[in-house]
Design brief:
The protein is of the alpha/beta class. The protein has helices at 7-20, 56-62, 66-70, 120-137, and strands at 25-28, 39-42, 47-52, 77-81, 97-102, 105-110, 142-149, 155-161.
C-alpha cells in the first residue's frame, strides 16, 4: 500500500530536492498574480517548478487552470510530485516530469523537458514580491545594503542598519 502524504509534506520534500539540484533560491506557496507555484527553485541559469499533488482529484483539476490551458507557466523545467502510482507518465502534459517520494529522497519517474515558452514576467514578479516581503519582515530602521552568495551557493541578504551607515561628505 502506497504511503499517504499531505500537501505540506510534499512541498517540504520538493524544497529539499530543489536545494539538492543546485537552486540558489527556493520559493514555496507564494501567490503570484495568477499563479501560485507549490515550489519553484532558481538555479543560476534556469528555474524548476514543482506542483505537489497529494490526491488524484487535485491532479485532474490542475489541467483546467487557465495558465495550464494557455500553455504559459513558470519554470524552464516542470515536475509533478505525487505519491507512488498516483499519476502515470502517460497522463503527464507534454514535457512535464514526474517525481515520486522514496524514503528521504525521490525517484524520477519521468524526466522533464525544457520549456522555451516560460512566463519570464511571472517569474520576475514572484522574485520581486519575495524581495518586498523580506524587506517587510526586517526590523524598522534597517535596509538591504548588499547581496552576496555564501560559499554553499545559498542566496543571502546582507542587512545593515540605516543609522550606522557612514555619511558621505
Amino acid at each position: 500500500m502506497p504511503i499517504k502524504y499531505t500537501h505540506d509534506q510534499l512541498v517540504k520534500k520538493a524544497t529539499k530536492w530543489l536545494w539538492r539540484q543546485g537552486c540558489a533560491i527556493v520559493i514555496t506557496e507564494m501567490a503570484g498574480r495568477s499563479q501560485e507555484p507549490d515550489a519553484i527553485g532558481f538555479c543560476p541559469t534556469y528555474s524548476i517548478l514543482i506542483e505537489c499533488k497529494a490526491n488524484r482529484s487535485d491532479f485532474l483539476k490542475d489541467k483546467h487552470k487557465c495558465h495550464r490551458r494557455a500553455g504559459r507557466s513558470m519554470g524552464d523545467k516542470r515536475y509533478y510530485l505525487a505519491p507512488k502510482g498516483m499519476i502515470s507518465p502517460e497522463e503527464l502534459p507534454e514535457k512535464w516530469g514526474l517525481l515520486e517520494p522514496y524514503g528521504s529522497g525521490f525517484t524520477i519517474i519521468e524526466s522533464a523537458g525544457w520549456f522555451q515558452d516560460k512566463d519570464c514576467r511571472m517569474e520576475t514578479n514572484l522574485l520581486v514580491s519575495a524581495m518586498r516581503r523580506i524587506k517587510g519582515m526586517m526590523p524598522r530602521g534597517t535596509s538591504v545594503k548588499s547581496y552576496y552568495y555564501q560559499t554553499s551557493n545559498r542566496a543571502t541578504l546582507g542587512i545593515k542598519p540605516v543609522e550606522t551607515e557612514e555619511k558621505e561628505e
